[in-house]
Amino acid sequence: MTSLASISKSLTRVGSVGVNGGCKNHLLAPYYSYALYSTSSAFATPQTNPQSQGVNVVEQKRRSNWTKWLLFVPGTLSFGLGTWQIFRRQDKIKMLDFRQKRLELEPMKFNEVSPSSEQLDTLEFRRVACKGVFDEKRSIFVGPRSRSISGVTENGYYVITPLMPIPNDPESVQAPILVGRGWVPRIWKQRSLEMSHDDEQPSDASYLSAQESKRTSWWRFWTKNPKVIQEQIPSIISVEVVGVIRGSEKPSIFVPENDPRSGQWFYVDVPAIARACELPENTIYVEDINENINSACPYPLPKDVNTLIRSSVMPQDHLNYTMTWYSLSAAVTFMAIKRLRPQR
Questions:
Q1: How far is CA 88 from CA 11, 45, 95, 159, in A?
Q2: Alpha-carbon torsion (107, 112, 113, 114), positive or negative
Q3: Lowest CB count within 10 Å: 19, 183, 224, 331, which one?
């Protein structure tokens, strides 16, 4: 403003000198006034348009309304998760009741059931009695699986062995099945690997038996009473398994994938295990739940039947989750209302 005043004074002085001096500078007076007006307008404060200012206010109010509604989004999501836990609890109760009723039924003879006659969905968690012969050489070890005894944790495996039919026995299984026999220590897998390694190597017994057969055939021409060698056929030891028909396990994202080529199994995949045992993919899988354990030979240790009617998340846990989500929803909604309430 000081600059503007000085400029106006100088222009006035120049105009007045021109008039008093007799010069014709009075003709330049309009130009001096125009310069004075231009200079004053340049330093003047710009004025805003009232109409544009009203549009900006409306836009700001509209944005603030959207921001207010976003404050209620966390509370709505929390309420939805709590409601979802209620439905999950009802489904879990129905599932456990279905298993409980199935396990209370009397075991049925497995020789009357074939994989093609009924679907697995109708047979799952059904108690069956199976009779056959275990093929120990084709056992599969799933794990490692740990168990705790008196506070001491011991690592081991869950052994699955094919149960083969007994020839000319109508009470045995008519088709091979997979039997989850239970938990075994780690030394069981080491012994199984050693047995399979010994079977692959040719033994000296075959060579000695061939030499003995040659000597017997040569000596037979010189003796009147040839010596008869009787082969001893090993007796077949049949077993009877009382178990529950199960399906494949659903591993979590933290469980590695199975590697059948290296013999590493981290979870039960029934079709893959059946292929590894050279059995059809629709082979039925049975978990042994026999409670009569021989103290002289406690392993394999069958699975406890009570574990079949338990889940990692029980109905009571779903109820606790529901109360947690609803409490969080109420707290977040209260904070949003308090934030939007106008202060006095």
A1: 90, 68, 11, 33
A2: positive
A3: 224
What amino acid is encoded at 258 in this protein? N
Q: Which of 292, 167, 178, 287 is nearest to 235 (CA)?
A: 167
pLDDT at 84: 96
- Residue 265 has a CB neighbour count (10 Å cut-off) of 20
Nearest to 279 by CA among 126, 124, 164, 118: 164
Read out DSSP for 286-327? EEE------SSS--SBPPPGGGGG--SS-HHHHHHHHHHHHH
Residue 226, pLDDT score: 46
Would you give the DSSP letter of residue 71? T
Beta carbons of 152 and 133 less than 8 angstroms apart: no
For residue 246, give the nearest of 155, 127, 80 by alpha carbon.
127
pLDDT at 218 over 90: no
The pair of three-digit structure tokens given for residue 38, joined into one six-digit string? 């231009």
Give me the residues paired with residue 134 across strands. 163
3-state secondary structure of 125: coil
pLDDT of residue 316: 93
CB 166 within 8 A of CB 177: no
**Amino acid in position 96:** L
pLDDT of residue 10: 54
pTM of the entire predicted model: 0.66
Instruction: Cis check for the bond before 280: say yes or no (omega within 30 of 0).
Output: no
Which pair of tokens denotes residue 167? 């020839």
String of b and e for 35-72 (b: at least 16 CB within 10 Å)? Answer: ebeeeeeeeeeeeeeeeeeeeeeeeeeeeeeeeeeeee
